[in-house]
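Many introductory courses stop at the sequence. We go one step further.
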Amino acid sequence: MSDQIFQNLKEFPILLDESQCVPHKHEILICGGYNQRVCYSYHTLKNEYKLICEYPSDAELNGHCVVKLVNKDNNNKDSNSITLLSFGGSNFRKRHTLVMEYVSVWGNVSNELNKYNQWVPFTDEHNLPIIIGKYEGHNYHGARAVIDEVTIICYLSLIIQAILACLI
């Protein structure tokens, strides 16, 4: 291993702007970007990219945030899956709140049969969609979030929003 702190990576297959990234084991999950719906996995040991999926066609990704939901399974380092939450939008862009159960695309799991690696609407116990920021009129362009027992969302207008993780 070299003494370099930073290294150049293999060229990305497409141009991305305002992308959201989440680390998972030896992968960096790159989830969409400004008007770009594709999601990729970058494998840090193989120095390769693989397509994961695309956001639904009605998801507008001009201002979105992606975070890893923390639960008892995600805290297990041997767990093969993680749950991702993607939310975004504003008064001028359609809002979305989606979830994905991610299993590494570098393994042998059949994602289509198991419904893994697909963005689906985030719903409550009655299967009704939950849209973060729907009624508050918040603009999530540039938002960043951290999830633990409480979800902290920071975004423009100097607003900090806290959501209890048990509600997510």
